[in-house]
């Protein structure tokens, strides 16, 4: 995992002011933060989680949910939301975008499979512990917990009971904070079709 450059508390103050948001102008930036800034925030958030600084936000009984994804907000303000997400086997987010928000993530443990629409097809990649990714506006993807055998040297041994697996955890940042997400399907003609748009402030779809 890369070393952190910005702290979660001071990152907002480190950037010069940008132009006001005007969604009618294609070149207008939705946030003063850049993808590299979000990667730094998720990297530091991951380090803080591993260091136990957010233990008070973790499941009280120490047992990670095994039926549905779980999330806790680590930081929020007018410019950015930072979340910790626990991923459940077999549960995907569906193909979606983040509307007018930029995004980034750092994987803490386990591995994630991402299926990204590249304009003609879905391309898969696996992100293991320590890996990072950023998502510009217009990025359409589906994310789910990767099988243990997808990543060499995975710490997960895949016992029979999914509840006994080590958690697959990742830290995500969105700027500006999420307000909506659109969902998509790939048509029989090999094109992408939007199926619905929902208002939400939850990371990677409703938990």
Verbal overview:
The radius of gyration is 17 Å and the shape is globular. The longest helix is centred in the first third of the chain and has 16 residues, at 35-50. Helices cover 8% and strands 33% of the residues. The strands form 3 sheets. Strands 1-2-8-3-6 form a 5-stranded antiparallel sheet. Strands 5-4-7 form a 3-stranded antiparallel sheet, with no helix packed on it. The chain is mostly beta strands. It has one helix spanning 35-50, and strands at residues 70-76, 81-87, 102-109, 111-117, 122-128, 132-135, 141-145, 168-175, 180-186, 192-199. Residues 1-28 and 150-160 have low confidence and may be disordered. It starts with 34 loop residues before the first helix and ends in an 8-residue tail after the last strand. One of its GO terms (molecular function) is dioxygenase activity. Keywords: Dioxygenase, Iron, Metal-binding, Oxidoreductase. Pfam families: CDO_I (PF05995). This is Cysteine dioxygenase. Belongs to the cysteine dioxygenase family.
Topology:
Layout lengths: L34 H16 L19 E7 L4 E7 L14 E8 L1 E7 L4 E7 L3 E4 L5 E5 L22 E8 L4 E7 L5 E8 L8
Antiparallel strand pairs: 1-2, 2-8, 3-6, 3-8, 4-5, 4-7, 9-10
InterPro entries: CDO_1 (IPR010300), RmlC-like_jellyroll (IPR014710), RmlC_Cupin_sf (IPR011051)
Organism: Nocardia suismassiliense
Family: Belongs to the cysteine dioxygenase family.
Strand order of the largest sheet: 1-2-8-3-6
Note the gap between the termini: 27 Å
Summing up helix and strand content along with how strands pair, one would put the structural category as mainly beta
Oligomer: single chain
Average pLDDT reading: 82
How many strand units? 10
What fraction of the residues are assigned to beta strands by DSSP? 25-35%
Radius of gyration over all CA atoms, rounded: 17 Å
Global outline: globular
Share of helix, binned: under 10%
Write the H/E string, N to C.
HEEEEEEEEEE
Q: Can you count the helices?
A: 1
* Major β-sheet profile: 5 strands, antiparallel
Low-confidence stretches: 1-28, 150-160
